[in-house]
């Protein structure tokens, strides 16, 4: 099945590798104009830009750290200048660390909260004036938000916060015709290495007996961004192979 998003102007944060790269690629293949960012850019951003030249959509890259509010303003300004506005925001950029609670200091806590939760608030806060009827915000949460995982209190708290943020913004922005949803992914196989033992354990947790691919998550993002999902807002959408 092919979804056309031709003419849609899309911001995907953290789009140079992993899930964000797959989402960026999927929007460009669907004919959208996509602007993406990451902190470092580099070869990953250059390679994606080269690849996306062959797609019907167009692609822009800005170096920006979404946990820095001045970078977020620059990112939103770039959407206005280069895309001429915004129809879709995908808050995908995220970071994770594994730290026992007794070692988790304020700096470590804030770093993860700022990237995974506060950035999503800040982007919508600054971009909301650009979002008109039919626009859509998609936050990339995590299945671990509700399950909890040891040594990831900061990460799961941030991702659980995204659910509350999503539901409140859905109520606040619904009357303006703007939809807001959050994805709850299970384990998605990206470039990150997993040991055989960990991979097998995660696979056994799923009903489908395998990990997800970034493309399988990107397809759900395209659906949520499209008019096919026009009556979906405030939803937490599991994409986890049936964990
Ligand atoms: P990756 O680490 O593979 O990629 C993260 C991307 O975000 C990179 O492009 C990275 O680039 C960018 N990024 C990280 N921090 C920032 C920042 N502060 N500002 C701007 N860009 C940033 O992650 P995944 O693809 O695995 O994960 C993507 C999202 O999906 C995250 O929100 C994650 O929490 C969520 N998720 C992932 C799961 C999985 O199994 N992979 C499961 C559940 C949820 P750079 O380092 O150059 O900044």
UniProtKB/TrEMBL annotation:
- What family does this chain come from, according to its entry? Belongs to the short-chain dehydrogenases/reductases (SDR) family.
Superkingdom assignment: Bacteria
What is the name listed in the Swiss-Prot or TrEMBL entry for this protein?
A: SDR family NAD(P)-dependent oxidoreductase
The cross-references to InterPro entries, in alphabetical order and at most eight, read:
KR_dom (IPR057326), NAD(P)-bd_dom_sf (IPR036291), Sc_DH/Rdtase_CS (IPR020904), SDR_fam (IPR002347)
**Keyword flag Oxidoreductase:** yes
Ketoreductase domain residues: 8-186
Which organism does this sequence originate in?
Answer: Streptomyces rameus
Does the record bear Coiled coil in its keywords?
Answer: no
Q: What Pfam families does this protein's entry cite?
A: adh_short_C2 (PF13561)
Instruction: Keywords in alphabetical order, please.
Output: Oxidoreductase
């Amino acid at each position: 099945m092919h979804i056309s998003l031709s003419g849609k102007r899309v911001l995907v944060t953290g789009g140079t590798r992993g899930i964000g790269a797959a989402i960026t690629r999927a929007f460009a293949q669907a004919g959208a104009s996509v602007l993406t960012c990451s902190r470092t850019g580099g070869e990953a951003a250059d390679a994606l830009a080269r690849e996306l030249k062959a797609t019907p959509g167009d692609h822009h890259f800005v170096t920006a750290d979404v946990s820095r509010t001045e970078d977020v303003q620059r990112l939103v300004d770039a959407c206005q200048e280069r895309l001429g506005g915004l129809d879709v925001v995908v808050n995908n950029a995220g970071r994770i660390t594994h730290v026992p609670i007794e070692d988790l200091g304020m700096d470590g806590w804030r770093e993860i909260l700022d990237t995974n939760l506060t950035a999503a608030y800040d982007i919508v806060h600054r971009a909301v004036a650009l979002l008109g009827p039919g626009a859509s915000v998609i936050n990339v949460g995590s299945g671990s938000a509700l399950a909890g995982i040891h040594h990831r209190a900061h990460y799961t708290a941030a991702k659980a916060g995204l659910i509350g943020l999503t539901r409140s913004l859905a109520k606040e922005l619904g009357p303006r015709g703007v939809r807001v949803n959050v994805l709850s992914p299970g384990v998605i196989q990206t470039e990150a290495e997993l040991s055989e033992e960990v991979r097998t354990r995660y696979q056994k947790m799923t009903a489908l007996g395998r990990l997800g691919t970034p493309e399988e998550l990107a397809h759900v993002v395209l659906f949520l961004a499209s008019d096919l999902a026009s009556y979906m807002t405030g939803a937490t959408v599991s994409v986890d192979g049936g964990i």
